[in-house]
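User: When convenient, might I ask for sequence and structure tokens for a protein?

AI:
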Amino acid sequence: MEKLIGCCGINCAECDARKATIANDDELRKITAEKWSREFNAPGITWEMINCTGCREEGPKFSHCLECGIRNCAMAKGFNTCGDCPDLETCSIVTGILQAVPGALENLKSLN
């Protein structure tokens, strides 16, 4: 399985937005927009917004990825990911993702 670890430890290669972007799959974009609108109570997500190559990759980013506090913190500190930060396991910014996404902490630790 391809791994493309984001700043927070999520594997961007598994993200439907990235899959839809890479494959230029409008049907997957529509499915993803509908799913995320429900899951995140964000009715403003449209299928046209589903374009992202991954938060650490060149190319388009989903709007949330551009404003993501985790990504912005890592970039401001000059880190590739939160795995480079000595405060990783006590950080209040990334803790929610580490608790909610199984494997995120292991993904980050595997990069070092």
About this structure: The mean pLDDT is 94. The CA atoms of residues 89 and 95 lie 7 Å apart. The helical segments are 16-23, 26-39, 63-67, 69-76, 95-100, 104-110. The two ends are 19 Å apart (CA to CA).
